[in-house]
Each structure stands twice: as structure tokens, then as C-alpha cells.
Amino acid sequence: MSAIVDARIALPKIKASRGYWASVGHRLMRDPVAMVALAIILLIVLAAIFAPFVAPADPFRGSMLRRLKPIGFPGYPLGADELGRDMLTRLIYGGRLSLFIGVMPVLLAFCIGSGIGVFAGYVGGRINTVVMRVIDVFFAFPSVLLAIALSGALGAGILNSIVSLTIVFIPQIARVSEAVTTQIRTRDYVEAARVSGASAFTIVRVHVLGNVLGPVFVYATSLISVSMILASGLSFLGLGVKPPEPEWGLMLNTLRTAIYTQPLVAALPGAMIFITSISFNLFSDGLRSAMEVKQ
Amino acid sequence: MNVIVDTMKPVDDVDRGGEATALLSVRGLIKHFGSSNGLLARTRTVVRAVDGVDFDVMKGETLGIVGESGCGKSTTARLIMQIIKPDLGEILFDGEKVGSTALGLNDFRKQTQMVFQDSYASLNPRLTVEDTIAFGPRVHGLPRKAAVERAHDLLHRVGLEPSRFAGRYPHEISGGQRQRINIARGLALEPRLLILDEAVSALDKSVEAQVLNLLLDLKDEFGLTYIFISHDLNVVRFMSDRVMVMYLGKVAEVGPSESIFTKPRHPYTEALLASMPSMDPDHRTEEAPITGDPPNPINPPPGCRFHTRCKFTATLCANAEPALHDVGGEHLAACHLANPESGHPRLSLA
Predict the structure, then answer these.
(1) Could you tell me if A193 lies within 8 Å of chain B, comparing CB atoms?
(2) Which of A224, B17, B207, B319 is spaced 20 to 30 A from A90 at the CA atom?
(3) Model ipTM value
(4) In whole angstroms, what separates CA B94 from the centre of its chain?
């Protein structure tokens, strides 16, 4: 006993080595594309959160005299929409709902889907087959069609579009997490944990989740862009947000009539959707390569 | 003196069966892996991975298990560890049936641990070295602080300075060091039996020698019993008191190490020994002592499993399966030639 304690005291403490996530963060910091994407995402998110302080005008107050003004019109830096409301203000406020109904379904589906996938993957056997075949039924429908069908059935509204998008993404995330879990389950360290007498719950908590959730999380971040586009699509079809709420998909819909008179202004919400979703995708790519380095 | 010995119960309390009882007895162990061909196919192919294996491991000894790839060595280890369920047969630990009320699965697992071959795949990349070693004791209810302390003590025992290695992740350390950590994890529950499944096969020779010596030291220090599985005959000879040779899921020969290596009685063991590279340039291995692959375990040959490759094969060998026959000195061989009453034609020639 004493010899060991002495040895520990005698030797200088060496700094604990960097944890896995710390080293992923370190590598991510050195990826310029991912960092630019992250900066854009943060900018949009912060602008949306602090919209009342950032936005130059009231998002709901229009002016019949100043309808469909071009970009750069005095007092309207990004022009005015079909009801004479300031486009910049509405784009900033629109980020709130668009991000919310883009991120929430993915977040919910990540929690539920990875739960289903890890359970099916770890239990294996017949139960796995049954669960995954049920999941497969959802793959029979293209995700756009499924989202529209579910939203149509549930009725319009923000909550319903979040629910329907969550249902669209659960099977996809469940499939990925099931595949990763099945792979992890047969690793020797999981068998070693079983040999040490640990319960299935403890093994999943300590040995499986840490190795499964990382890759699944990366996959989920790549779904945010899809979710945003689908959510905008639902709003565009009148199944999501109702006017006069500012939301990028809905704005795209209401401005489509102005496509010949003010094409640039009409394209702005689309550009926001594009920039946000491509930023999420690039960040997700960066995260993937930062995590792929030998574990 | 040290944490491990302090917390260990007196030997008499642990040793239920006494000196004469084998620590581990395997009786009629059978495991067949079935694979159905697709969803609708009715035909099933069955791999007879382990097909009726009996052996004992005495207290304090090292039993070496050798054989070609696919002969059932690792499956036997997994069956003993209850990672996979046997189709038939029973495993007795210190006289008690594993999984019975007298010896529950968790009790057994505390006393039997395993070191895996792949030192990389057997460590969780997300856990630090000390967390990996402390996991088992914590599962069995040791408070975190005590478990970490035990992990540090074990790191010290396997020759890794705790202050340098405890907080490291598996990818930051070398293969030999990882295997030491695997051994430390195996010892963390203070087992009586340690199964080493190709534990040194992936290491290079100098590191291998270090780890083997470490294993011998630990065995003396903790009074361990080893099952040492390897395909490397030299290593098995160095480590083992007794050796068991397996062929296609069956025991071909088992006996004291010296006896097996100097007077093998099964033609398969002879061939295995002859296949060891010679150290003497004047006695080069001129011709391959054994040719061809082992037969497919899906359809093992009838009679003696080795008769398709054996140079002494006779009609008898294809028809009747030889049982393990005692040839003296606790040396058993499953060959008709080892049994004078078998009626093998070569016996009457002599």
C-alpha cells in the first residue's frame, strides 16, 4: 500500500489527457469550412433570439404605399414585401419559427429514434427484426410525401408540423442507430463488460451509448437542413405556420406572386433557407470528419 | 500490505471444494451454430463448433489449449464464460454447477474472468484506462473511490505507472500496454480463474515475452489458475502445466505438457509439433508434416475427425470414432493407435 502511495506522490502529476469530445472540438476548430458554417449558424440563431433588439422595424406593420420595394429602398435595406413590411425585419423574425420547426423535429426524433434503434440493436434477434420491419414500412413513403400526408391528417399548425416531421425522421435515425449499435454490440469490450456481470442497462449506459450517439448525432445534424426545407415546404403549402407570422417558407409562398415584379426580394426567404441548411450540412460534414479520426 | 490482499477473503472461505476438486470441470460441452439459408429455406447448415468436450482444470495449474483456427478453442472459452449458451453439457466450478442456486452466474463471473485477443477492440475507446479497470468492481458494488484505488493498484501490478496511465484513452497507448490493461481489468474482480484467449498472439515477440513473464508473476502472486488458449506451440509449452489439443471441436489429446510435447500419441499432435519451425539448421523441416485445410466443420467426416489427413488412416478410422484413452501418466489420446484393443491394423504389425 505505502509503496504505491509513495510512488504516486513522488512522481509529478501529469496533466490528464484530453477527453474524446475535447479532441473532437480541437480538430473541429482547425476546420475552416466548419467554423465558417458554425459562425453563420450562430449569427442566424443569435439574430433570431435577439430579434426585437436587432430588427430595424416591426415585423407586422405594413404600408400599402410601400409594397414590393426593391432591395436598397431608403428605410428598407432588403426591400419590402407584398404588404409593405420590412423584409430584413421579417427575415430576422422568420428565423425564430423556421429554426424552431427545423431543429425541434430532429431533436425529438434523435431522442426517440436513437432510443428505438439502440434498444432493437442491443436486444437483437427476433425483437430487432420485428422493430426494424415496422420501421421499414415508413421507408416505403418518400419523406416529403409522408410529411405532407401526416400534416394533412393532423391539420395545419406549428405543433402538428413538428409532430409530423418528427415521425418522418424517427425511422431514419432509428435505422442508423440500430446499425451502429449492432456493430458495437459484438465488440470485445461489450463482451468483457458482460463477462464482468454488468446488467444490460449498465452496459448500454456505459459502453454502448457513448459509442453510438456520436455518429448518430452527426447524422441528425445533417437532417436539420432537410427538416428546415420540409418545414418550409409545409408552410408553403399552408400546412404549417399561418400568416401573418413571419416564417421563411410561408414568406416564400406569399411572395411568389411577386416573382416577376420583384424577383430578388421574392427570392430572399429561399436564400435564407438555402444558407441556413447548407451551413448545417457543412458543419455536420466537419463534425463527421473531426470524429472519424482513430478513436 | 496492499489493497487486493487486504480485501480478499481468507483462502479457505473461497476454496469451497478443497484441494482435490477441480477448479473447473467441463462435461459433454456441445455448441452447434445453425445458419438457415434465408427466410424461406428449410435446409439448415450446422457448424459443429464444439462437439462434446470434456476436461478439468485443476487448482493452480495452467491448462494450455492448442489447435488450428476454427477448432473450437475460442468457442470453448466463450462457452465457459457464458457469453454464449451451450446446446448441451455442463460446467462445474469448484464442484458447483454454474448457474445453479449454489453458484449463481454473477458469483461465477466474479471468480472467472477473460482476457481477449484483440487488445484494441477489447477496450472501450470512450473510457479512460482507470474507468475501464474500475468498471467491473463498480458493477459489483464497490464505491467509486475504492474501485479507482483498486484500478491504480492493478496498473502498478501490471507495470504501468498509475499517475501516467490512469487518465489515458486506449488510442494513446501501445498494443503491449493495452494488453496489460486488459489483464489488469481481468484481475480487477479478483478472479480465481483467468481465461487467456490468444492474449499474446497480437503482440510482437519482445512485448509478448514481457507479458508472458508478467502473467507468470501474477499467477504466483494472486494464486491464479489459467486457461491459456493459443495457436503458438512454443508459448503454450512455456506457459502450461497441462496441454489440451483440439481438432474440429473435439479433444484430440490431453496430458502433462512435457509428455505431450515429447511423446505425443495422437498423429495430429505429432503433425502439429512437426510443423513448428526447427531451430536447428541440420534438422530442417523438409516436407510438410500435414497438408490441406481441416475439413469443413459443417460436415465433419465420420469416424475419427482426423482420418482424412492422417498418415496412419485405416478403414476402422473412417467408421469408428476413437474415445479418449489413457496411455499412462494422465495422458489421454483420442486415437485408435493409442488403444491396444481398438483393432487398428498397425497395432498388429508392431
Answers:
(1) yes
(2) A224
(3) 0.79
(4) 18
